Amino acid sequence: MSIKSHIIQLLRTEKTxxxxxxxxxxEQYTSVSNAQSLLKELAESGYEITYDSNNCVSLVSLPDxxxxxxxxxxxxxxxxxxxxxxxxxxxxxxxSALEIARRGYQQGTVVVAxxxxxxxxxxxxxxxxxxxxxxxxxxxxxxxxxxxxxTFPFTMLAAVSVVQAINEVLFFSCLIKWPNDVYLNGKKICxxxxxxxxxxxxxxxxxxxxxxxxxxxxxxxxxxxxNASSLYSISGIPVDRLALFRKLLIKLDENYCLYLRGEIxxxxxxxxxxxxxxGKKIRFVSGNRxxxxxxxxxxxxxxxxxxxxxxxxxxxxxxxxxxxxxxRP
Length: 329
Prior knowledge:
38% of the residues are buried. The protein folds into 3 domains: 3-61; 68-275, Bira Bifunctional Protein, Domain 2 (BirA Bifunctional Protein, domain 2), CATH 3.30.930.10; 281-325, SH3 type barrels. By secondary structure, the chain is an alpha+beta fold. The radius of gyration is 22 Å and the shape is elongated. The chain has 9 helices and 15 strands.
């Protein structure tokens, strides 16, 4: 734990702390014995700090930021979320995670940003974000025996984790829309993008990016994404991003550990339950194929088996679908 984290946790635990005690704590970890400069740095980062007449320090409020010292303190995880890399502004969390994975960062490392300028979804679609309104993160997974065509389980476990986290923190029941979106009350509130990377034949990894619309206002979405909304816009209740992000990391860690133990079938069962798409009529587009049909089955690798309206069955591995009837995400 860094000295900054030590001081923050001390201030969160105690109502007031003498400045001299902070000086002594700082001296234990560094050659500097003046805490004023560190407290000033914390204040500039959004921590509201006050001093009383006895030269004691109090932490009045925390910043609405996903800082590592706030996110991973006492976080009950074994792999995902043990290390967190935070940015106020970044191009893309997936790009950053791909880069640091190539540099050898440990699996389970999470890149999180308050805002990204070049966020993307499937097929290079743009992902919009406003500063401090979303949860924008990417996770590095490095399981043994990884194959480029076996990345769907990571999209699946991420989607299940998002649904579980939102349900446990906010008591909202979300649904998964194949292949990689999470919906609430008919609106998209989360997108997931999984990408495969390799450093050499003995070093392969998967990056799974997650973008959750949390506290955006209705007018903060452009007309081009009219099907998108946020948890706040739908519920009218401001959401604690820190609490939701911590819960998301816990669920990602739990589900990834299931994957490593060979229990992906449990995650797939939950994914199917949250997806609730079997027997539903859809309009689909996949490459140069399109049409209307009924979803007959979904395989653990994410492939849809569709009974086409004009006869015959086809398998769709990637593409887009719209529900014609019988399903409201």
